[in-house]
Specification:
The protein is of the alpha+beta class. The chain has a single domain, classed as Alpha-Beta Plaits (2-Layer Sandwich). The protein has 3 helices and 4 strands. It has a 4-stranded antiparallel beta sheet with strand order 2-3-1-4, with helices on one face. Strand 2 and strand 3 form a beta hairpin. The chain is elongated, with a radius of gyration of 17 Å.
Length: about 100
Amino acid sequence: MMAVEIDAPTDAVGAVMGDLNGRRGRIVTVNASDHTEHIKAIVPLVELLTYAPVLNAMTGGRGSYVMDFARYDEVPRELSVKIVEQHKSDRHAVAAHG
């Protein structure tokens, strides 16, 4: 899990927060100052691997973010089942071609 701090223009905050929720993020705080808002959230790392271009598109290039490791957390059951099945499938494909 990553601690993420995002600075976004006020007019894009709704879109940014909606996107974070869609990425299984948990909003910690939102603080306003002038025409920007500072959002702190906890988000799984895998959900942030493609975040830079998405944030850029949502904010018209006016948003920025930084992230730091926060803690380890258990993968949700439905995702862990998918990961295990994909791993089994990949191993089987390698064995068939190996």
